[in-house]
Write a structure and sequence with these properties.
The structure is a single chain. A seven-stranded parallel beta sheet has the order 3-2-1-4-5-6-7, with helices on both faces. By secondary structure, the protein is an alpha/beta fold. Helix 6 links the parallel strand 5 and strand 6. It is globular. It has one domain: NAD(P)-binding Rossmann-like Domain (Rossmann fold). The protein is 41% helix and 15% strand. The structure holds NADPH dihydro-nicotinamide-adenine-dinucleotide phosphate. NADPH dihydro-nicotinamide-adenine-dinucleotide phosphate binds next to helix 1, helix 5 and helix 7.
């Protein structure tokens, strides 16, 4: 059995978009994959993977729901102890009806809380739940999907999203320090503009405008992000810990 075949990969928000792309890439690397998503279509996504010969399972769950996250060991069953890779990808980026993010002055507190709950607290809950099996095997990879909104001033996402994704980077650094001694690394991937249903929800012209600021001359694909995640999940990345990989075609350069 290859090393990857004994390292189950859990991908949150795996029903579609970037999460689905990550699941396919990790499956191609040999990992059994678990897709966890609020969208019921997650079962069909897992079925497509399985039909292509990749061991895959689906869990319908909300990453911000304590009880549902606490039920992960039961949901994964005999795969729980084989968990090796955790990708915190589930996220939301609410917009006003005109497709633009609401400014802080017009942002309902409930919208602020929900974005923090899903994008940040969800990653905390899932990561915390997954520590025991990773620690038990003395090897693990946790990858946070943040955003360039956490790297530079956000223009197409709201302040809640920028705050949550920035918080995710702080969470990753803290976890990287806590878990490094256990053989578990924690890193971030910060995508630029990726063509997914989330990006398609933006106001007219936004993606065209962003395209002009991307040196490689195209929007990113889920596969572009997945390649970076697959590298971080590999043995070759064992000395990257607390790092952030920018996957934006050069639209942001630190
Ligand atoms: P999508 O909206 O296409 O996919 C995200 C998936 O996560 C959806 O299936 C969504 O379900 C699911 N999800 C939402 N909330 C929860 C929850 N509480 N629990 C479990 N699953 C949930 O987004 P992308 O694929 O574009 O984005 C994936 C990640 O990448 C996100 O974290 C996003 O912030 C980040 N990102 C995306 C960029 C882009 O340009 N697309 C750029 C930078 C970062 P539902 O549809 O029901 O909400």
């Amino acid at each position: 059995m290859s090393a990857a075949a004994d390292r189950v990969a859990l991908v949150t928000g795996g029903a579609r978009g970037i999460g689905e792309g990550i699941a396919w890439r990790l499956a191609e690397a040999g990992h059994p994959v678990v897709l966890a998503d609020v969208l019921p279509q997650v079962a069909e996504t897992a079925a497509r993977l399985a039909a292509a010969g990749h061991p895959a399972r689906a869990v319908t769950m909300d990453v911000s729901n304590d009880a549902q996250v606490a039920a992960l060991p039961r949901a994964l069953g005999d795969w729980w102890e084989r968990l090796g890779v955790v990708v915190n990808n589930a996220g939301i980026s609410p917009k006003a009806p005109d497709g633009l993010p609401r400014p802080v002055a017009a942002m309902p507190a409930e919208e602020w809380r929900r974005v923090l709950e899903v994008n940040l607290t969800g990653a905390f809950l899932v990561s915390r739940a997954c520590i025991p099996p990773l620690r038990a095997r003395g090897w693990g990879r946790i990858v946070m999907i943040t955003s360039q909104a956490a790297r530079t001033r956000a223009t197409i996402a709201g302040a809640h999203y920028a705050a949550a994704k920035s918080g995710l980077m702080g969470l990753a650094r803290s976890l990287a320090g806590e878990l490094g001694p256990d053989g578990i690394t924690v890193n971030c991937v910060a995508p630029g503009r990726i063509a997914t249903p989330m990006a398609e929800g933006a106001a007219a012209g936004v993606n065209d405008r962003m395209l002009r600021a991307i040196p490689v001359g195209r929007l990113g694909t889920p596969r572009d992000v997945a390649e970076a995640v697959a590298f971080l999940a590999s043995d070759g990345a064992s000395y990257l810990n607390g790092a952030t990989l920018d996957v934006g075609g050069g639209s942001f350069m630190p």
